[in-house]
Design goal:
The structure is a homodimer.
Chain A (H helix, E strand, L loop, with lengths): L1 H11 L7 H12 L6 E8 L9 E2 L3 H10 L4 H10 L6 H8 L7 E4 L5 E2 L6 E6 H6 L1 H25 L4 E4 L7 H15 L3 E2 L2 H7 L9 H5 L11 E2 L9 E2 H16 L8 H13 L5 E3 L5 H18 L6 E4 L4 H18 L9 E4 L5 H7 L8 E4 L1 H5 L8 E8 L2 E2 L16 E7 L5 E8 L11 E5 L6 E3 L3 E4 L2 E5 L2 E2 L6 H13 L3 H4 L8 E5 H12 L4
Parallel strand pairs in A: 6-7, 6-13, 10-11, 11-12, 12-13, 17-23
Antiparallel strand pairs in A: 1-5, 1-14, 2-4, 3-5, 3-21, 8-9, 14-15, 16-17, 16-20, 18-19, 18-23, 21-22
Helix pairs in contact in A: 3-7, 7-8, 7-15, 8-17, 11-13, 12-13, 13-14
Amino acid sequence: MAAEGDLEALAAARPLLTDLYQVTMALGYWRAGRARDAAEFELFFRRCPFGGAFALFAGLRDCVRFLRAFRLRDADVRFLASALPPDTDPAFFEHLRALDCSGVTVRALPEGSLAFPGVPLLQVSGPLLVVQLLETPLLCLVGYASLVATSAARLRLIAGPEKRLMEMGLRRAQGPDGGLTASTYSYLGGFDSSSNVLAGQLRGVPVTGTLAHSFVTSFSGSEVPPDPMLAPAAGEGPGVDLAASAKVWLARVCAHLELGVQEPHPGERAAFVAYALAFPRAFQGLLDSYSVRRSGLPNFLAVALALAELGYRAVGVRLDSGDLLQQAREVREVLQTTAAHFQVPWLERLCITVSNNVDEEALARLAQEGSEVNVVGIGTSVVTCPQQPSLGCVYKLVSVGGQPRMKLTEDPEKQTLPGSKAAFRLLGADGALLSDVLQLVEEPPPQAGQELRVWPRGAREPCTVTPAQVEPLLQLWVQKGQLCQPLPSLAESRAFAQLSLSRLGLAHRWLHGPELYQVALSEKLQALVDSLSARGSP
Amino acid sequence: MAAEGDLEALAAARPLLTDLYQVTMALGYWRAGRARDAAEFELFFRRCPFGGAFALFAGLRDCVRFLRAFRLRDADVRFLASALPPDTDPAFFEHLRALDCSGVTVRALPEGSLAFPGVPLLQVSGPLLVVQLLETPLLCLVGYASLVATSAARLRLIAGPEKRLMEMGLRRAQGPDGGLTASTYSYLGGFDSSSNVLAGQLRGVPVTGTLAHSFVTSFSGSEVPPDPMLAPAAGEGPGVDLAASAKVWLARVCAHLELGVQEPHPGERAAFVAYALAFPRAFQGLLDSYSVRRSGLPNFLAVALALAELGYRAVGVRLDSGDLLQQAREVREVLQTTAAHFQVPWLERLCITVSNNVDEEALARLAQEGSEVNVVGIGTSVVTCPQQPSLGCVYKLVSVGGQPRMKLTEDPEKQTLPGSKAAFRLLGADGALLSDVLQLVEEPPPQAGQELRVWPRGAREPCTVTPAQVEPLLQLWVQKGQLCQPLPSLAESRAFAQLSLSRLGLAHRWLHGPELYQVALSEKLQALVDSLSARGSP
């Protein structure tokens, strides 16, 4: 898979995937003799998405891959030269040609971490020119990944631990890579699988899928399969013409359901037979191409019972229109009576999958007590995050040449927190999260059991907190361009995300009107903010 | 650029970028002996986005590129084998290995066409198995491209023809390719430029950009540039220390503006000087890092006047926070009085660029009569389309083996229009659009000047229409895998989009509560729909 990895790296990680102003600024820094000044940027968001009180951080792996491959090719430099003034000093382009991330150091939360406003997701330090150039691609790689992971985590909280969630939004994504990102990070956030085959191949996401209406409607019933025979599951004994057997079973099913045997659509049944011949051990039916009750369900049962006679167990049905909760209930009832009537007990427990524009609200209904739904397919909602389609991450300069930097602007919310920082998570004796604390990197870390005076963000007064445990939040991942610890696998990050969420207080997990989680500044950091604000910044 | 093109093709056009159910269905078709049945699918949307009455079609070029490169590699087939049952007939995988789009024919609207609900954007015909596999990638390539193009067209309608619109949303996009798609198709829809350098390199989108707050805040004012000297614009005469000259000008500017000369931030001025040294012929200032009125504007004017003394003309300023309309007015006023005071007349006409979460509503305000804003930068809003982040395109089977197919479902809105179709646009004598008409492909086309009886979609009665002109809508682009006419360039499609929009009636162009544009069915098509619905489909 090396070639595949290379291709993916090349495709995703192009240094020109950046805003032109990063390049014009690069020229400005270079002309000012500051290209190699030591600088540090922080990547963070200002408000939790979707009106909630948490986010999940994701995208670190993509950032690391991008940084390690970062290198301007000749064609890139030539294009930049064409976009800059013709009298630009050629030595600048020589500088660009030699550029890489060998001077760049990255600290970050582990992927799948709970993240809160203002706490750095990434701290990127290195030569000013290159860390400035990284702004746009890093924002692009982190923002959407974290948004989707957070959206998926919310949907998982709504669904509860039992229901399976399948992401199927590739067709609604912002192009190919949007789809790949969505599939990867909805899995990280708590989904069970994706329909996206490429996400399976490249990222190891479990992939699932069955059949679409077009498969069903493509059959009229007059088709003759080249080989209609199916051998028994155990492999012994004579094969059976599955279409003929399904026809016999249809008569019995219709009698049981008090339906005319002409009612179920013959093309739909032919489609089910074709699918069952291809997947005798994984037969599933999509029930709503014509009518669930009068066609889809009896046809499905006829084929499932014909298979059962050969020793195969069907696995489930899918509903894709109408009132999904109510239909799932009706389908379960029919499965139960049919299972009892024909003495095929496992039939009553078949998996019922539903889909059709399921969002948070619809999912809450499908997940309610007594729901017969087992699997929910979610596409548009998790992939496009219509409640808030952007996390709005920013990447801000916090120090240069060892001196803190701060942006004031016309808008207080857009002010930044100056200085190179450390971040800690304070926990209570029961392991519950109390507060995140930001402090200057030179301050000693908070100590378990010691009272700490901090300034909650936005508060006018300090408060005290005594943590039972203290966890440092930011880990060193890339030092001077070198990976310094293995990145966790996607599945490991997924497990870590669920663990992190379980430690968050219930009131912070509420999806609407939650209690906000406290992020506080150390007294020294607060004093620095105050002094720089008063001075109009350094 | 051949290698670049290959890379892009490889990166975007991977056949496994599809839903797993396309592959399970492929096996189902294959097992049923139907892999090569002649099938036709239509790709269309059901409702215009954003509550409007039109959409722009985009993405055809990406679809054609995808189809022409479509080929499963060994690693792809091996991955599919791992995702399908272990006892799957190996001959199926041989079939996949040999698969390409040499049997696929595509008719489509030209890119940039006005598109309406139910009218096919793409008609894809060919062997059932392969055209089924294409569903997900084609939806992914068309849906978002058309959504962004439509969003951009709406923003262009709001802005009017004069204001320049710059897309700058890469950092908010769904990953790298989402950003590239957004930049490309917002340009097609009517934007003037993008900040995305890669979109310039790969797609020829004009790229623009200036500087960010981090550039400004990275300077404290104590930096010493290695070469502070700038030669006059005409190239003759001695150079000048620009920083020193700006300092002299600052005193004059502050006296004129009645500000203390200590008030403007020295770091900000150093940043402007550095930028001016790099871009003496394209100097721009970002004014709101500290305070527009007390710092950004006087610093900018000092540097611009120092440049002017050397014969260079600054090009503009940017505002990125606060009340943009009001600030633009104040900035223009200061530019005017300063231009008059120092007798530098061109200074009053400097370009004012604004940005900061501009959406349709904010743009309407910025575009109002008397606004002093010249350029609007729009990011999140055009890239994520928060009003409606997905166009919701579908890809439906309309015929197989020459027989029409129709999906009924539990939800009337999800019913499809059966049969292989032609589509025409009927125009009045003044060139205004009257109606789109869908009919069966075998019917004779509508004739100019002849009365036509049609069924408007959703109506219970037919109506008559007499077009002065008739335009066929769907063109043949790919026949049996071969491109049969050159694709228009992006700039040509952009011009075509603006032309198309100008022919649409004003009431259909309203962005809120517009009059819906009529899409009608021929009597024969309506009769086919009725008969298939009555029969419960074929």
